[in-house]
User: Which sequence fits this backbone?
């Protein structure tokens, strides 16, 4: 659990202390206000998105939302949605979605994202690329000036075949940025396997990875790479919950 953050209140009343999870919930609930009956909705993955999925389930149960079709971005979200009775479908049946709601690991000033520290980047990218509106929900700790500059991982999903070779090729691409790649492993030490049967290499940068579009293209050109966690120019709305309340920014 991250340290609590303080949310402003009226000058005369004491400040309200909210945990990071409560901030995530505030952002998620705000995003669900954009969901209307009859919509096809992409359901994101992670501790922030799970609040949005729960809220959609709750509103369906209360009859305040009707005829929603959810498109889950991971098996874990699929399971959560099933447990809540949210009707589900997939991209084969619904190739255009009205909107998607999902969290992010980093958000820069241009609304570019790093996603996938939870491991679901490929399905998230497929679903969110098919949306008319993609709402990103974060607490303010996710805001960064440069993607990959936080010292935290930029995930890349790769095929398991000769993963060490692919890891080295990825590091070589960003040798000037001091890039170090690590195979993601479970607590038991075995390789983490995605919903798609692939591995994840987490890339760590000592300095800026440079032009994001060029970095994205270079990664995707490597044979063995399936997808990466940079979501460039995809978000249409970013909802941030933080000390000063909640903000909604549209592109
Ligand atoms: C999962 C993701 C998540 O959206 C991202 O990791 C944010 O997670 P959280 O809301 O738990 O902070 O991309 O693959």
Assistant:
């Amino acid at each position: 659990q991250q340290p609590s953050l303080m949310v402003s209140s009226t000058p005369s009343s004491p400040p309200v202390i909210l945990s990071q999870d409560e901030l995530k919930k505030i952002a998620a609930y705000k995003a669900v206000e954009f969901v209307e009956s009859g919509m096809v909705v992409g359901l994101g993955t992670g501790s922030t998105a799970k609040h949005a999925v729960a809220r959609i389930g709750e509103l369906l149960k209360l009859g305040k939302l009707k005829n929603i079709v959810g498109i889950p971005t991971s098996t874990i979200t699929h399971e959560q949605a099933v447990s809540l009775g949210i009707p589900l479908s997939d991209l084969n049946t619904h190739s255009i979605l009205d909107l998607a709601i999902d969290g992010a690991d980093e958000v820069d000033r241009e609304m570019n994202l790093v996603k996938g520290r939870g491991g679901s980047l490929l399905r998230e990218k497929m679903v969110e690329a098919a949306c008319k509106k993609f709402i990103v929900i974060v607490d303010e700790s996710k805001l960064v000036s440069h993607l990959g500059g936080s010292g935290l991982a930029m995930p890349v999903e790769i095929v398991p075949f000769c993963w060490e070779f692919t890891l080295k090729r990825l590091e070589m691409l960003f040798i000037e940025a001091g890039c170090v790649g690590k195979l993601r492993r479970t607590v038991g030490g075995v390789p983490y396997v995605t919903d798609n049967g692939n591995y994840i290499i987490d890339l760590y940068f000592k300095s800026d990875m440079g032009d994001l579009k060029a970095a994205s293209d270079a990664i995707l050109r490597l044979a063995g790479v399936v997808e990466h966690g940079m979501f460039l120019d995809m978000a249409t709305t970013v909802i941030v919950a933080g000390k000063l309340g909640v903000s909604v920014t549209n592109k």
User: Anything to note?
Assistant: DSSP finds six helices and 15 strands in the chain.
